[in-house]
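Hey team,

Filing this mostly as a record. A colleague (T.K.) asked me to run one chain through the structure pipeline before their review meeting, and I want the input and output archived in the tracker in case anyone asks later how it was produced. No errors, nothing strange. Just documentation.

Input sequence:
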Amino acid sequence: MGQLIDCTGTAGGTALIGTPCDDLNAATGNDTWDASCTCVGQLIDCTGVPGGSNLIGTACDDGNASTGNDTWDASCTCVGQLIDCEGTAGGTALIGNACDDLNAATGNDTWTANTWDAPCTCVGQLIDCTGVPGGSNLIGTACDDLNAATGNDTWDATCTCVGQLIDCEGTAGGTALIGTSCDDLNAATGNDTWDATCTCVGQLIDCTGVPGGSNLIGTACDDGNAATGNDTWDASCTCVGQLIDCTGVPGGSNLIGTACDDGNAATGNDTWDASCTCVGQLIDCTGVPGGSNLIGTACDDGNASTGNDTWDERTCVGQLIDCPVCPVISLIGTACDDLNAATGNDTWDATCTCVGQLIDCEGTAGGTALIGTPCDDLNAATGNDTWDATCTCVGQLIDCTGVPGGSNLIGTACDDGNAATGNDTWDASCTCVGQLIDCPVAPGVQPHRHRVR
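Output structure:
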């Protein structure tokens, strides 16, 4: 019987099928001769086990919970893929990558790191009122509505930039708006409001205390007095009317007690009486309205020789009175002798006294040429001529200035108005004449003459 030829062609050799060999491949182990006498080894896996299951590309566990789909890579390192934010190993939903948080109000959504129990969350940035994700123009933040009449502008809930009206005091959102109440600090007005120009304007308070009322000073009113008319509110807000005069005219001049004309020529001082009747006073015999000198009443006819004088048809007429107590029964006004040589035209007066008139300086009884009265001494050089105590007509010399009794007489000092003269005096022709003043000496003195040798 012969020996088996082994896989190397050696009869009785050991390199039999199924026995160890060396396939000269360092990547294999447990090499054996297979049925076809090929030395075949088993791949050494990544854990160093020939024929092991931990081959490159096969699953493993890298010990990192953050990875998945762990496999042995070409360098026999167990490497996993990062588990993304959706739980997919090797997925694209990684922190920082875009996502969709399903909120239409946000933009630029990205996966962000979170806590250990929720490692990542898809978070977007709020889209602001100008459409910019993460922008600063958020609802409630400041903006500019481009309206100069507003202030404190902010984005409202509809992303409209809305400001508050600036009121009349300059306060945005203030209450001092046009048409609202204010105080114009004028006590004479009421219902003060801000007008269209932001001026605080009130309505004048009328005389009945009503702001904007019609009862203003100078306007019509009713003072409740039937005796007045044209009633108006005066400056003190008192309703005052004008007295209705006797002709029915308010404020007219024909008031009770004022002058009028009763149309009767026999009366005067006509006035309106208390019943508004024009009544005059009878004109008496002396032409005086209301006078006492009426026909038949006593008067004085100015004649001392009469008595029981009365007015008769505007003439004062008396009865002749005799003088039963005189030495000779004579009537008042008849001639007598008062035994005074200085009087003349003596007559009995109203008291039955024989009284004469002084005989003046011209010998006329009752004449005007009395002592001290003016006269004419027929001397053109005098003036202010009067009768002196001896009944001589004597005047005062008229001086050179034409003044009777004046001091500017001929020969007295005067001033000729010429600075070159002195010792000025009135000359015989009443001319003020002075003497030439020479240079070194007094006026009128001749200077010494010296002979020149």
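Quick notes for T.K.: Residues 276 and 375 are 62 Å apart (CA to CA). The chain has no helices and 24 strands.
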